[in-house]
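The aim of this short unit is practical: by the end, you should be able to scan a pair of folded records and say something sensible about each. We start with the first protein, listed as its amino acid sequence and then its C-alpha cells.
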Amino acid sequence: MFDLLYSSKLLENAVNEFSKLPGIGKKTALRLVLFLLKQEKDEVISFGNSIIRLRNEIKYCKSCNNISDTDLCKICTNPSRDHSTICIVENIKDVLSIENTQQFHGIYHILGCIISPIDGFGPGDLMIKTLEKKIRNKNVKEIIFALPTTMEGDTTNFYLYKKFKDSGVKVSTLARGVSIGDDLEYVDEITLGRSIINRIPFESSFSS
C-alpha cells in the first residue's frame, strides 16, 4: 500500500472524495477523475449538478420508504399495482432486484434495516408505522417476506410474523430457491422471480 503523489491539490482532493465511494480505491478514483478531466466542461458540470440535485431534492415515499421525486413513489401511486399485496424488503436495492424480475405486481414496504444487535439495530429501528396503519385499516390481504436469508433476516421475519399473525393477513415468504445467506441483489432474476411466484406460507418455512 502506498500513497499516490499528486501534482495538484485539486486533483488530490477530487481523488480523495471519489475514493470514499464503496469499492473504489485510490487508483480507481484517480482513473475516474482523469476521465472526467478529459470530458467537455458542460458534461462535467451536468454530472456534478445531478449529484447535488440528487442529494438536495430526493424524497422518500411516505407510504413505503422508497426513493422518490415526490411524496409518494411511482409504484405506490400506480393504480395497476395490487395494493393489497405488500412485499417487505430491507432496502431500496431489493426493490430494484425484484422489479427486474417483472414477476411481482404488488407494492413494497422498505424496512430500512433488519434486526441485528451486533450492528446496533433492534425492532424499534424498523420503519413499519405506515405498514401497521395499512394492516389496521384492512387494506392488506398478504404480506411477503423478502429479506436476506440470514440469521438476521430470519429474526426480522419472525418478529414481524408474531406482530401481524393475528391480523387476518396472509403471511408468505420466498420459496427457498434463494440460497441460505443470500442478499437479493446477488440472486439472478430467474431464481428470484420463481421464488416470488412460488412463495410459501411463512409457517411452512419453520421446518425448512
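Turning to the second protein, read its sequence before its C-alpha cells, just as you did above.
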Amino acid sequence: MAAPVRVSDIDVNPGRLAVSLRGVTKIYDSGIVALGPLDLDVRRGEFVSLLGPSGCGKSTALRLIAGLNAPTSGVLQASDRDSKMRTGHSIGFVFQEPTLMPWASVRENVRLPLKLGHMPAREANTRVAEALAQVGLADFADAFPRELSGGMKMRVSLARALVTDPDILLMDEPFAALDEITRFRLNDDLLTLWRDLRKTVIFVTHSVFESVYLSQRVVVMTARPGRIAAEFRIGAVEPRGEEFRTSAEYASYCRDVSHALTPLHQGQPIR
C-alpha cells in the first residue's frame, strides 16, 4: 500500500526547484476564498498532478503559477533555465479547451506566441515545424481547426505551448472532454514528450486513474479553499505503458489515491 507523503518528506533542494509556493492564498473580489494557504514545491523535470474536488482551486493554482492572476498573499516563484527564480517566466499553458483561431491554419495557430513575441520568421518557421512534429501533426500544418478531431485540436494546443520551448508546462484538464481511447493515446504521447524533452509538468485532472498513470507525484487537494491534503509518490518503473495500466501495482496506487480523495468529496477531513 502506498503511504501518503508529507511536504517535509519531499526533497526541496532550492537549486532543483522549478516551482515554489509558500503560504499562497487567493481571495477573489467577491470575497470567495479560493485557495490556500498552499505550500507546494515541484522539482525540475518532475511530473506532478493536482487532484481534488471540483472548485477546490486546482485551476486557480495553475493560473497563479502562470502569472495570469496574482496571489492575494504568500510567495510564489517559478524558475527559468539559468536557475534564477522568477515569477511567471518560461511557462507554457494548455487549457481545457483548445481555444484555436478557427480562421487560421494549424501552422498559424501554433505560430501565434512567436508572432506576439516578434520572433524572426525563419526561426519561427523552424520552431513551428519542430513543435508540430513533436505532437505528430507535421502532415496537418495547413489544415484548419474545423477539419480536426478533438484529440488533434488538443495536440495543436499542446504544440502551441511547446513552441516557445518553456521550462514549465501547465496543463488544466486538457483531455477531460475526449473519449477514453483518445485520452489513453494522448496520455502515452504526453509521457513520451515529457521523457524526451524533460519539461517540468504540472497537470490538473479530476481522474484518479489519469493522475496515477501520468505522474511521479499526485497531490490531493482539499475542498475550497484548496490546500494539500495528501501526496503520493508513484514509483512505477519507466517507461510506463499498457503493462503498467493493467498491473496490480497501478490498481493499488489508484486505490490508495481514491481512498484519500473520498472523504474530501464527502466533505470530511482526512484522518
